[in-house]
């Protein structure tokens, strides 16, 4: 086939699949010949397309944080151990290293990330690398680099290689001028943390790449996530994990938020279930590309009361961290996730009582509960 004809066929295919319909150029930015890191201008035409009957080949960035190892476990169960690669810039614990493929990947190293995607024929990418709200405020330049420059690398590679891309957003993508009770999917978003600003940027850039280049971008705004077997990475909602550990270890918990600070929260199993469900949802079901998801909403006082049903002698004191409190006071109190429920059937399994019971059964507090009774 003459070269001109095959290129024009490829362009037509790309235009049809772009969802853009505007007839203007849809080649990703780094393919336009203006980037020092450019690949050939027809790079995406050569991508192996993902057939729905195959298992996806998955890469998880920032996979050694609170959520990544659990996500890998869920995806490996579904798609096979060797089809899911965990990556991070940290050294994995033995049990993680031996549980399936792990690879070093710094998302700020564009060429290395691209090499990993190409050599492993990746088709789905879950982009978990980030600096969370509190650690982001403590190191704004690093948060800007990881959360914004890193995202740009991931977006370009995903667009060039025709990946389905999941990027989590957060309740932190809203700010003091957003409606807080409840917070709908579409409303004013003027966050006042670098974390929130970077997440609004991620939502908008992902949606822009979707409409402009046909990138299959999918995004959920997670509430604060609570897990038993992984530690949170420096956020405002971390107290809701720490209380369980301290209740069991010392019977005392000092909370860094005020007792009446209400925030949306979710058990990790619900969060990971939603993530897989939105990635598997048929594109036609998605009326939007960024959805709120919700399960429960509580204050430190309400959580402490539920914990005290299991450990009655728990003593809770409050020593407010001004940075975290200001952040929490600007975030949603309740999250409206009706679009996720309507479009792709989202439904949570864990409310507050089930969450607390499950956490204690994981953390093995039986002996302490027995002592208390
Ligand atoms: N955990 C939550 O409550 C929560 C809530 C809302 C959204 N999210 C989002 O979910 C994602 C995962 O959250 P998490 O709680 O597991 O985060 P985490 O902070 O626990 O883990 C983030 C990981 O990113 C890695 N990382 C940092 N810089 C990197 C770089 N340059 N290259 C590659 N990796 C790098 C870190 O080593 C870390 O393991 C994040 O994007 C976060 O914003 C989390
Ligand atoms: C809410 C979420 O994005 C994270 N747990 C934080 O508090 O920063």
How many E strands?
13
Q: Characterize the largest beta sheet: strand count, sense, and whether it forms a barrel.
A: 8 strands, parallel
Structural class: alpha/beta
Total number of helices = 14
Ligands bound, unique: nicotinamide-adenine-dinucleotide, threonine
Strand content: 5-15%
Average pLDDT works out at: 89
| Principal-axis shape | globular
Calculate Rg over CA atoms: 22 Å
H-E order: HEHEHEHEHHEEHEEHEEHEEHEHHHH
Low-confidence stretches: 1-25, 31-50, 369-373
Give the N-terminus to C-terminus distance in angstroms: 80 Å
Assign a percent range to the helix content: 40-55%
Explain this structure to me?
By secondary structure, the protein is an alpha/beta fold. 42% of the residues lie in helices and 13% in strands. The protein has helices spanning 3-17, 68-79, 94-97, 110-119, 133-138, 140-160, 194-213, 239-249, 268-280, 300-308, 322-329, 338-344, 352-363, 366-372, and strands spanning 58-61, 84-88, 102-104, 124-127, 164-166, 169-170, 216-222, 224-226, 252-255, 263-267, 290-292, 296-298, 315-318. The strands form three sheets. Strands 1, 2, 3, 4, 5, 6, 7 and 11 form an eight-stranded parallel sheet that branches. Strands 8-10-12 form a three-stranded mixed sheet. A two-stranded parallel sheet has the order 9-13. Helix 3 (94-97) links the parallel strand 2 and strand 3. Helix 4 (110-119) runs parallel beside helix 6. The longest helix is centred in the middle third of the chain and has 21 residues, at 140-160. The protein starts with a helix and ends with a helix. The protein binds nicotinamide-adenine-dinucleotide and threonine. Threonine (THR) binds at residues 132-133, 170-172, 195, 224, 235-237. Threonine binds at residues 132-133, 170-172, 195, 224, 235-237.
């Amino acid at each position: 086939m003459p070269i001109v004809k095959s290129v024009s066929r490829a362009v037509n295919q790309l235009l049809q699949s772009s969802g853009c319909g505007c007839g203007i150029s849809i080649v990703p930015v780094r393919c336009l010949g203006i980037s020092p890191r450019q690949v050939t201008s027809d790079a995406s035409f050569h991508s192996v397309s993902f057939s729905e009957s195959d298992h996806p080949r998955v890469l998880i960035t920032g996979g050694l944080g609170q959520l990544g190892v659990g996500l890998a476990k869920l995806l490996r169960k579904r798609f096979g151990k060797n089809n899911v690669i965990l990556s991070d810039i940290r050294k994995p614990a033995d049990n993680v290293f031996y549980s399936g493929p792990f690879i070093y990947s710094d998302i700020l190293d564009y060429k290395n990330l691209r090499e990993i995607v190409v050599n492993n024929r990746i088709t789905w990418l879950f982009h978990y690398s980030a600096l969370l709200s509190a650690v982001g405020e403590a190191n704004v330049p690093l948060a800007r680099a990881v959360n914004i420059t890193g995202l740009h690398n991931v977006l370009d590679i995903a667009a060039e290689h025709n990946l389905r891309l999941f990027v989590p957003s957060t309740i932190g993508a809203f700010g003091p001028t957003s409606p807080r009770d409840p917070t709908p999917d579409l409303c004013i978003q003027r966050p006042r943390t670098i974390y929130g600003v970077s997440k609004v940027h991620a939502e908008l850039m992902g949606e822009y790449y979707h409409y402009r280049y046909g990138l299959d971008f999918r995004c959920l705004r997670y509430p604060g996530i609570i897990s038993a077997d992984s530690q949170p990475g420096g956020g405002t909602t971390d107290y809701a994990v720490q209380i369980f550990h301290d209740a069991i270890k010392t019977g005392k918990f000092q909370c860094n938020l005020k007792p009446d600070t209400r925030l949306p929260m979710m058990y990790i199993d619900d969060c990971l279930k939603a993530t897989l469900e939105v990635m598997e949802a048929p594109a036609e079901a998605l009326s939007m590309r960024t959805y709120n998801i919700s399960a429960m909403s509580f204050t430190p006082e309400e959580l402490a009361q539920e914990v005290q049903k299991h450990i009655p002698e728990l003593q809770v004191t409050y020593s407010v961290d001004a940075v975290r409190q200001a952040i929490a006071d600007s975030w949603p109190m309740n999250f409206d996730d009706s679009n996720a429920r309507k479009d792709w059937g989202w439904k949570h399994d864990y409310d507050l009582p089930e969450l607390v019971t499950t956490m204690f059964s994981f953390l093995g507090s039986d002996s302490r509960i027995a002592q208390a009774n």
